Amino acid sequence: MTEKTLKELYARRALCLFCIQTVSEFPLDEPRRADAIVFYNEQLSAIDKQIADITGKPPDIVIGLKPAILFPKAEGVEK
Fold first, then answer.
1. What's the number of domains the chain is made of?
2. Which of 19, 30, 67, 72 could lock 26 by a disulfide, CB 3.0 to 4.6 Å apart?
3. CB burial of residue 48 (10 Å; 0-12, 13-18, 19+)
């Protein structure tokens, strides 16, 4: 039962994040933009709290970063 609920919460969380991203791309003069962002952020906070209550920790925050190349391959260097 908890696993199904947790999967549902993560799906709802992903939907909220998608809605926030979509609404953020609306023109700034759109009159409903600010209210929609506030609404979906409140929903996201409530879902995060429910996830934290079930798992004991808040959901991971994923930032879309590219991996760094720490040691680039040198061309023309023989080992």
1. 1
2. 30
3. middle
Summarised one tens digit per residue, pLDDT across range 17-69 is 999 999 999 999 999 999 999 999 999 999 999 999 988 888 877 666 667 67
Q: What is the mean pLDDT of residues 8-21?
A: 94
Domain span at residue 16 reads: 1-79
Identity at 58, one-letter amino acid code: P
Q: What is the DSSP letter of 78?
A: -
Q: Give me the amino acid identity at 29.
A: D
Q: Where would I find the beta strands (DSSP E) of the chain?
A: none
